[in-house]
Amino acid sequence: MPAGAMSGGGELQNVKLMLLGDQGVGKSSIALRFVRGEFTENSGATAGAAFLTQAMRVSGQTIKFDIWDTSGQLRYHCLAAMNYRGAQAAVVVYDITNMETFTRAVDWIRELKQLANSQNVIVLVGNKADMAAEKRTKGQSFAEENNLIFTEASAKTGITNVSKSRHSTQTARSKRKTRKGF
Amino acid sequence: MMTDIDELDINPFYRALQTKFLSAYEEAQERCYMICIPKSSCLEGAAISRKLIETHILRPSPFFKGQFTTLKSDSQLLVVDDNARFISTVEVKTNIKIVGEELGYNKEYKPYKMLIVARPFDNNLLQFRPSENGASRIEEMPIKFTLDGCRDFLHKHTDSKLYGVICERCGQEDSALVTKCSRLRGLTPAHLSVPKHFSLPMESAVQEMKTLDKLETPIEKLYCLKSSIDKITEEVNTSVHKSQSSTLTVDEIPCLTSDDLIPILVTVLVGAGCRHVFSDLHYMENFYWLAASRDGDSLNYCFVTFKAAVLYLMDTDFSDLDLKTDRPSPSTREPDMQGSVRYRNSEPLKSRLDRQMDDISRMDFLASLQDDMFLTSGKQT
Ligand SMILES: Nc1nc2c(ncn2[C@@H]2O[C@H](COP(=O)(O)OP(=O)(O)O)[C@@H](O)[C@H]2O)c(=O)[nH]1
Ligand SMILES: [Mg+2]
């Protein structure tokens, strides 16, 4: 057993999670939810909600999430490799009231899949669910076709959906052994 | 110090001392040697080797006060600063910050010192285990590639020589930035449309950033970025706590996000006026993987954010900005915010600068650097 691998009797695992998506879809609001919401205990926010770490216990394993909110970091293509380096999970966010942002989300996912190892987890989040009268199906079916995890959420009205999207990330990680790539 | 007690509880180096390397630990205690413990955050994922342990147990020199050799070798000389704030390694000339101190007592109740240091004396002693469960990480391949190719080469050269060559090559960009920064003196976050409550002088962050010029190794420079960003966060938090009334709910208290951090960092860069920002970027980017940069993931985040701020500073035409007032440029006040100064609405785009950066970061940059280095060393000898 290598030193440092044990923490409170469980394996400590580091997951770098990136919030991606078009400007204005609500990435920072989702990050703020993590800082302010039920996840605040033991959370270390390095720079407000821009970068935060959050340890969680999931079925006996402690997972430490490093959550990257992005904005200007995505403006320059030459930063992409640095941004994605080491990322094991990406939450790609779009705004369900703005289909342009969905198209951009699909672009992100395409780019991620090119860069990513098939073991990485991508979660597609349709944000601003509070603004839609009826549930949209576009994201859902895209996610199904492409083997992604999908959830609708609202950073405004509640965190339940958002936390679900995070929970799915963990579940997906534990399921990974049986799943074949994307 | 509370933090140090917590630190030792979770420190893998300290744990290895108490278990696998107990005999070395007992010897050190018995003879009251000084034990330097790299703090946990720089050891994450690293295997603790005997060599690492033996390089960090220090024997006092019988001749000179403040000088030490390591348990590993008599010829590795270290100097502990009088006020015990730094340890300097004589061979490679770096200063390592002492971040904490603990006294222990041996069986004869004689005290021995344990110092918690900011990083290992030699980062090359760290071997990182491949991540458990085989989850391989995006983009690690190119790093390994460069590592194999360049490690030998780098070992032959000192940091300062390498840095000199980079500065020579990036001289133009460096001085362009210095000029731009001096022209933008007085730039405030408010000019870049950062909300009022975050538009603060950020003096402590500027002071921190100013030390960038003086630092020598890529890892020290990286930590400087991180502390500058930490200072920004502190300034923001302090000011928010002071000015907000207690009637606000948690959700209403302003919180710094990534969107504000980059423009604030731009103003800090302008205030600090560092002389080799562009060179520093390359130095850190191309060489910090030789060092242990696993301070969580936050060093990486700080680097990417810093680089985004530098690119933004280089790339933006600030000429319509009125620095005498505290107002954003006219274009940024338009409702659609598509002004040249605000980047909020910009898409990832491949600009000219971007392509230039891509070129320069590619491997041939390293290769040509290598040529330059040999030329330089040839000239000197
Ligand atoms: N109605 C609603 N508005 C939201 C939601 N999430 C974010 N917003 C708003 O959308 C705007 C952009 O959000 P922001 O988090 O800055 O987006 P980012 O650019 O992706 O970081 C802000 O005005 C938010 O208040 C949501 O779930 N519902
Ligand atoms: Mg944002």
Automatic annotation (TrEMBL), chain A:
PROSITE patterns: RAB (PS51419), RAS (PS51421)
Family from the record: Belongs to the small GTPase superfamily. Rab family.
Chain spans, region Disordered: 160-182
NCBIfam families named among the record's database cross-references: small_GTP
SMART domains: RAB, RAN, RAS, RHO
Record's keyword terms, sorted: Nucleotide-binding
Residue spans of biased composition, Basic residues class: 173-182
Protein name: RAB5C-like protein
Biased composition (Polar residues): 160-172
PANTHER family: PTHR47978
Automatic annotation (TrEMBL), chain B:
Entry-linked Pfam families: VPS9
Alphabetical list of SUPFAM superfamilies matching this protein: VPS9 domain
Every VPS9 domain range: 171-322
Highest taxon, organism lineage: Eukaryota
Annotated stretches, region: Disordered: 323-350
InterPro entries listed in its UniProt record: UPF0507/Ank_repeat_27, VPS9, VPS9_dom_sf
PANTHER family xrefs: ANKYRIN REPEAT DOMAIN-CONTAINING PROTEIN 27, DOMAIN PROTEIN, PUTATIVE (AFU_ORTHOLOGUE AFUA_1G09870)-RELATED
Official protein name in the record: Y5897-like protein
